[in-house]
Amino acid sequence: MISFVEILEYTGTFAFAISGIRYASLQKFDWFGAYVVGLVTAIGGGTLRDLLLNSSPFWMTEPSYLICTAIALLFAILFGEKINHLSNTFMIFDTLGLGFFVVVGIEKTLDAGFPMWTAVVMGAATGAFGGVIRDVLLNQEPLIFRKEIYAMACVIGGIAYWLGIEFQLNAAIIQVLSATTVILTRLLAVRYHIGLPVLKGYNEGNNNSDETFHSK
Q1: Cα–Cα distance between 189 and 154 in angstroms, integer?
Q2: By C-alpha distance, which of 201, 5, 202 is closest to 101?
Q3: Which of 159, 210, 152 is nearest to 186 (CA)?
Q4: pLDDT digits (tens, 9 = 90+) for 158-171
Q5: Which of 164, 187, 20 shows the shortest CA–CA distance to 99?
Q6: pLDDT band at 212, cuts 50/70/90?
Q7: How many CB atoms neighbour CB 199 within 10 A?
């Protein structure tokens, strides 16, 4: 019987794949190119996680994730025009995938015997790294490097997971709490334009800053 974590993983795969495919459509990629972008968006974070945990990447032993991405491509082909007319569609799908994958990353890291702080890091990597690969393939600045709350939402969701363990909540409640925290944090940050402070250069405003930095 399929577990709740597996449901989250497949749902996150579909959501992230849709996100990547629709971004690829804006760049006028063909079907195969859109599938590749959707696939790496969906499996990129989990692949990094598994490699760091010294485990075989999950999609190499189970073809259902590749099939799930193909279904996402078919969904985008059939309903692409309707999706494009929905407000903030890309961000919503991306945010759902983010929340679900954080929980999956945390669960798999804890199951591998690593401490909670490592699980929080791996949860954030699972959620955010696929988007980094997507943005690189699309020749865009990775979202996690911008002012928007993105990877930090994953960290906050990881902290919520840890608090759920500390308060000895039911496992399913902890999983829902963590995913919901990520999703709400991301949505509220976008809605109210909340972001981390931008790092300012020491010589900002100085037209000769490069010369000053390189001067001996």
Answers
A1: 13
A2: 5
A3: 152
A4: 999 999 999 999 99
A5: 187
A6: very low
A7: 6
**Segment 137-165, tens digit of pLDDT:** 999 988 888 767 999 999 999 999 999 99
Cβ neighbours for 116, distance < 8 A, ≥ 6 positions apart? 110, 162, 165
Residue reference for tokens 């496992």: 171
Q: What is the pTM of this model?
A: 0.86
Q: pLDDT digits over 92-132, tens only?
A: 888 999 999 999 999 999 999 999 999 999 999 999 999 99
Token reading at 4: 């709740």
Region of 205 please: left (phi>0), alpha (psi -120 to 50) or beta. Answer: left
CA distance 197 to 37: 30
Both structure tokens of 89: 């569609």
Among the residue ranges 44-53, 179-188, 203-212, the one predicted with the least confidence is 203-212
If we measure between CA atoms, which residue out of 89, 61, 87, 55 comes closest to residue 75?
Answer: 89
Residue 200 carries which DSSP code? Answer: P
d(CA 18, CA 97): 10
In the block, tokens 């599938």 appear at 35
Strand pairing partners for 195?
148
Euclidean distance between CA atoms 102 and 156, whole angstroms: 10
